[in-house]
Amino acid sequence: MKVAERYAQALLNIGEKEGKVKEFKDILTLTDKIFRKRMVYEFLSNPVITVEEKKEILNLLPEEIPDVVRKLFELMIEKRRGACIPELYESYCSLIDESKGIKHAYVYSAIPLSSEDRKAITRIVEKKVGGKVKL
User: Fold this and answer.
1) How many CA atoms within 13 Å lie on the side-chain side of 6?
2) pTM for the whole thing?
3) Most buried residue among 29, 60, 88, 126 by CB atoms closer than 10 A?
4) To which H or E segment does residue 134 belong?
5) C-alpha dihedral (20, 8, 26, 74), degrees to nearest 10
6) How far apart, in Å, are the Cα atoms of 98 and each of 11, 41, 94, 120?
């Protein structure tokens, strides 16, 4: 299990307990756009920058970010896992899908697939794995 998956699992557990799974996903969608920026990633990855300086970046997040999500980011920075924050959104979404029994499949094609082709491939893969699939 990746580092980000452990933190995503903890957030998902809290979200399920509080009935805020979708709210947390929406918040992570927003914060993902911030933390995926190269400059932010390099800042969080830089070992010369202190933990306190890195935590200051959280002050730039919108006010509507719930405390539990802010505290999770803060904890990740304190544990020197700030560089894993950009992976949090993807891990969280994967765990949600996994809890719903949805599997992920990746299809590579030499030409762009039409929506009909995607639907046909999805049906075939779903039959093979015996469950719901996201391409």
Assistant:
1) 8
2) 0.79
3) 88
4) strand 132-134
5) 100
6) 15, 27, 6, 22
pLDDT (tens digit, 9 = 90+) per residue, 47-97?
999 999 999 989 888 888 999 999 999 999 999 999 899 899 999 999 999
Pull the structure tokens for residue 15.
Answer: 């979200």
The two three-digit tokens of residue 58, written as one number: 């959280």
- Average of per-residue pLDDT across 115-122: 86
Which residue pairs, CB below 8 angstroms and at least 24 apart, start in 112-117? Answer: none
DSSP string spanning 68-98? Answer: HHHHHHHHHHHTT-GGGHHHHHHHHHHHHHH
Q: What is the separation of C-alpha 15 from the centre of its chain, rounded to a whole number of angstroms? A: 14
Give the DSSP letter string of 21-39.
Answer: HHHHHHHHHHHHHHHTSHH
